[in-house]
Amino acid sequence: MPNPIAPELKVSKWFNADKNITLADLHGKVVVIEAFQMLCPGCVSHGLPMAQKIHQTFGQDQVAVIGLHTVFEHHAAMTPVSLEAFLYEYRLSFPVGVDQAGEGNMPMTMQAYRMQGTPSLILIDKQGHLRANHFGQVSELLIGAEIATLTGEKPVDEKTEDGKSIVDSCDENGCPIT
Amino acid sequence: MPNPIAPELKVSKWFNADKNITLADLHGKVVVIEAFQMLCPGCVSHGLPMAQKIHQTFGQDQVAVIGLHTVFEHHAAMTPVSLEAFLYEYRLSFPVGVDQAGEGNMPMTMQAYRMQGTPSLILIDKQGHLRANHFGQVSELLIGAEIATLTGEKPVDEKTEDGKSIVDSCDENGCPIT
Amino acid sequence: MPNPIAPELKVSKWFNADKNITLADLHGKVVVIEAFQMLCPGCVSHGLPMAQKIHQTFGQDQVAVIGLHTVFEHHAAMTPVSLEAFLYEYRLSFPVGVDQAGEGNMPMTMQAYRMQGTPSLILIDKQGHLRANHFGQVSELLIGAEIATLTGEKPVDEKTEDGKSIVDSCDENGCPIT
Amino acid sequence: MPNPIAPELKVSKWFNADKNITLADLHGKVVVIEAFQMLCPGCVSHGLPMAQKIHQTFGQDQVAVIGLHTVFEHHAAMTPVSLEAFLYEYRLSFPVGVDQAGEGNMPMTMQAYRMQGTPSLILIDKQGHLRANHFGQVSELLIGAEIATLTGEKPVDEKTEDGKSIVDSCDENGCPIT
């Protein structure tokens, strides 16, 4: 069973970035998404510090760390104005997007990835497949190993002999529009 | 040189309290004021956890813990709406007042106590005198000792033989109206 | 019910001390005994670091910190030679006595205090009464408060009006030889 | 420049192992050597806990964790009798060898690897080449990544087309006897 294509990010506003970022832009890199809420204690004490360490440990030409502010409660308390001060005070330097509001309480990217809550750490391989979706506190040793395994993989579409990319093919989640 | 009278709190809104709280009401108890900003990393990692431990360790008939939200930067990011969600998520159960806005960036109580920043931990004795004003990270062992020393003191005005309270007397800060 | 007299230390060898130390010598000071085994993980991670902090926080004219190596298992692994290197490597600077071997596995002072295991933190007041006997991890806030309470107490025998010390009197543990 | 062959272990006694262990036996696995002294504070607080986590995180058919007791000071304080109790009390379950005494203070394997002190964490690839030699505290994220990179490598001698192993070839450290 092949790994599903990771759903594209739906972001209403970016911080620490001078333009819109899409997963399509990051094709060829391993992508680490740290989904958090600024008032979630576990995000502040371990999720975000780990994301910052990943950002500093791995080469940014190989691994892209993206923060995603996935607010699903206390919406009025965690506005972009508050988030901007939070990112400044906690010295978080990787790009952070505000997950776009959906119909219910849960924002759109969070829904698309079926996250269980915050913090969630998501790993996407160089071809854009979803490879891990961790909820809660995770071992640094394990995450270090998972990232290195993905960075060590050869991009599949460079290897297909007939010149066709297999990234766009259908999988059990459906057929992506390309 | 006697200890100065602690300036009265200037609070625009209370959380975890069903009515306005004044230092005058707390006469006879040791008062611990934890001054913080919700987006100050040191407040979140050690100042507020210590205040919560003090609240749980000492009898509330002897020691009153008061949080004071002394916002002096990023005012739009730390509104009462955001603070309310913060207190809920971090499970802080002692009363917290919003320090009243002053003329500059620094709020009024923060100015009156000449605090150096956040977190600040202030100790007030049973007669309402200012006894300690700590800025930054402080030793639990030391704070435990300071609080116990103050709770062990007999209220001075119960001891004056001639029946006059000495609490109202003038000190180097001026003469209090009583 | 009065507090019992703390049993005298039975020590076969001292480190960080140039002569034998007895509780009788420490009369007038609050005494903190940290009972430990050098290969006990909880002693190394929190018991001994707290003892060292107490030693550094409180004035040594008021509070005496004593380590007591109470080996009740793996005796051949925790000899005085090993203990000496341990104290050096962990930079423990307060006096440490080796609790004297008794008839069973448990050494004599440990037995006399009916300790539950290691680490144990024992508090003795200025008159030599046993005031606290904590087993396991204890709150720094609480220990700071307990020590300050004891240092704030007036020595009872300075207060007895008839000039007789009450320290030597019998209590429920028996009558001390004086 | 090829990586040097890792020097063979010189061990006088093993714990947590029912027979002698050599690097030759571990050919085909990634080997992690945690060199420590039982009375070295940094070994106890971070080196050994990390080794235990590596032992539990990675499959033992892929990654072999070996402790090495490299005593270079206080020899009389850290005998095998003391080490055995230490391993029991700290619940370390991977094999631990006592590095064989050499001519000076430093034991033989420690000398052969030119370690800088304890803790040292050494990584050896599936062909027995020395790949990393870390001294002091190291990042779990980084070590996780390094181990995963080595486990992901194909053993070189399985890939040589002419059937000759290249493991036995000379390198800057000399020519191994095979």
Please describe what this structure looks like:
The structure is a homotetramer of 178-residue chains. Chain A is an alpha/beta fold and 178 residues long. Chain A has one domain (11-159): Glutaredoxin. Chain A has five helices and six strands, in the order ββαβαβαββαα. Chain A has helices at 41-57, 80-89, 108-112, 140-152, 156-159; strands at 11-15, 30-36, 63-69, 96-99, 120-124, 130-135. A six-stranded mixed β-sheet of chain A has the order 1-4-3-2-5-6. The radius of gyration of chain A is 16 Å and the shape is globular. The two termini of chain A are 21 Å apart. Chains in contact: A-B, A-D, B-C, C-D. The A-B interface holds A 39-41, 44-45, 74, 76-79, 81-82, 84-86, 88-90 and B 39-41, 44-45, 74, 76-79, 81-82, 84-86, 88-90.
Short structural description:
The structure is a homotetramer. By secondary structure, the first copy, chain A, is α/β, with parallel strands linked by helices.
SS elements, strand count of chain A: 6
Radius of gyration of chain A: 16 Å
Helix content of chain A: 25-40%
CATH architecture of chain A: 3-Layer(aba) Sandwich
Which fold name is given in CATH as the topology of chain A? Glutaredoxin
What's the level 1 CATH class of chain A?
Alpha Beta
List the topology elements.
The structure is a homotetramer.
Chain A (H helix, E strand, L loop, with lengths): L10 E5 L14 E7 L4 H17 L5 E7 L10 H10 L6 E4 L8 H5 L7 E5 L5 E6 L4 H13 L3 H4 L19
Parallel strand pairs in A: 2-3, 3-4
Antiparallel strand pairs in A: 1-4, 2-5, 5-6
